[in-house]
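Researcher: Final request for today, and then I'll write up notes for the group meeting. The sequence and the SMILES for magnesium ion follow.
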Amino acid sequence: MIFPQSRKRTPAEQRIPLPLPPALHYNTAMISFQNVSKKFGSHLVLDDITFYIDKNEFVILTGSSGAGKSTVIALLIGAEKPTHGVIEVDDMHISDMDTSTLQLLRRKIGVVYQDYKLLDKKTVFENVAFAMEVCNEDDDKIKERVPEVLEKVGLLHFQDKFPDELSGGEKQRLSIARALVHNPYLIIADEPTGNLDEENVRGIIHLLQKLHKEGATVLLTTHDPKVKELVKGRMLTLEKGKIN
Ligand SMILES: Nc1ncnc2c1ncn2[C@@H]1O[C@H](COP(=O)(O)OP(=O)(O)OP(=O)(O)O)[C@@H](O)[C@H]1O
Ligand SMILES: [Mg+2]
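Model: Predicted protein-magnesium ion complex:
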């Protein structure tokens, strides 16, 4: 379900006709990749992979650099199309979804990027607020919601600082706050601990585990053995285009 019946649909959502596209298959999976291949030119990055991630699972996707972890994520959020195969998120086909429906679904997927993707000229508060402004949320809702998510990641006291004034761990927590602003049911974190020291790695993992306990499905990619030791979750490994 993208639109809970309990709340009023925003103007952007009202432009999208209901019901949403029906799923081909019904299952309990939050994510399903069925016989998915992805080629960039002649380079076959993913070779006929099939996997499922259940609702409220915590899954770690590992694999060496260049194995295709970020490609899996790009396919999952519809930023790339598969060369073959079917991808579903919450029983909805990502591969044939039109752009506007995809944008609505993406609000329910919180993505945390390895390189943070923060806006340098905006404050901590404004970086999070911006994710709501682009969805035409009203000012009152923004003023209420932004402090809530900053509090959750322990950055409320830094709300007037700029990204340049934050440490790596704080920047990563800000990017998590931004990913949480629409209350996503799926959180995808691509190497969120890439450049962090052990204390900050623990902090980020702890935060993701807290969100998981609160009901989110979490997919975390890493090639860091330290992270694999710290996280309790199912491990999927990408190697030579295949998944194990
Ligand atoms: N848009 C693209 N165009 C062409 N090739 C691409 C593109 N995106 C990824 N690739 C190639 O696909 C392969 C997998 O890349 P990907 O970024 O998914 O790896 P990764 O497992 O995330 O690596 P890392 O751990 O370094 O982040 C690489 O060889 C990369 O060069
Ligand atoms: Mg990557």
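Model: Helices lie at 11-14, 69-76, 99-107, 124-133, 139-152, 168-180, 198-213, 225-230. Strands lie at 29-40, 43-54, 58-62, 84-89, 92-93, 109-112, 186-190, 217-222, 234-239, 242-243.
Researcher: Thanks, that's everything.
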